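comment on this one:
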Amino acid sequence: MTALALQSDRPVIRRSLAESLLACTQFVMDDGEQLAFGTAIHAFIAAYTLLCKSSGEETRFTDVGRLAAEAWSRTEGLDQGRWPEFMALCEHFAETHPAELSTLMHVEHTLTHDVGWALLTCTVDRMDRTDFGDPDEAPRSIQISDWKSERGELNHEFQGRWYSQMAFLSFPSVMDIVFAVHALRDWFKPDPLIFHRGELDLWWRATLDGLQARLATPNAAPIGGPACASCAKRYECPKAIAVARLIPENDEQATEILQDRLRMAEGVSVIDDALKLYFADRPQLVAAGHEVGFLQTREPSFKVTAPASKLLKWVRKKRMDMDAMLKAVSITNRGVQEDLIKAGLAVREFNPAEYKIRKHLSARKNATEVEDASD
């Protein structure tokens, strides 16, 4: 188990470890190259922000190269081929993120909470005061900012709750917290999470109860699930989910997996062409829980058959919005569709059969779906 032992033999549990242990007690953090890259980025951002704070300046572009090089050289486990990418990301951060010193409270600030059986901890990338109050008075509202260097749209709900509750416990005066994830590559901008004092208490008790129970049973069987992707045991664990086992460790493995994927995709295309020729003069087949052949749509499609001149008269008679009805979009309102059919301006018919493979529905299930669609 990845937890640092204190002299009192109590484990130190970081947020990332807590989230993964709740999913599987056998989790071991994978200290791979991707984690090292993120560590180097965070080291640069912290050093850059603190330099701006000490100099009282919002930007320090001339120091970006030096600070980035120092952060890179101090970080172990880096893929040295990613140096250009690292430098570009550091420069992009400095160009797009002024220090905003007027609200800054802390940078790389570690929060801890002693629960008796463990010491809980997390490190906040940046903390700002957002209540515009007197700087000499304790803050009532704060924002926790977390920098993310990855490209994916990941779920940060647990992290937002953990960091916010730890802040509530550390700052008794704080009543409201905004947890904001900042994607440094600008691939996505997730909505911030907003929490008020007290609303996380029940979740916190349930989380700590679960975590204590996991720590009390360290030899429990592994559980395949969300923790697998970042677990060092994912290639050898019999319970690891298939996706986790397939995650490449470097560009060479990624290239090999991509080539396999392209070969499989080409194979699927060849199989489809062969089945399409086979079923060209044969009825559809139900096999392996699927229908294959030239299949019609299960429900008739709605089609307007009237010319625009007749449709225009009908719209005026119904006192409907002409622009909304006549613009080049499909009419999706079921009631309007039925009115147009009754007026003889539209029909509902099956599309021509075309070759496809789809999951087979039993006669009873298919009838139920049709009945539901007609309600």
Observations:
- Residues 279-374 form one domain.
- The longest helix spans residues 251-278.
- The chain has two domains: 4-230, 279-374.
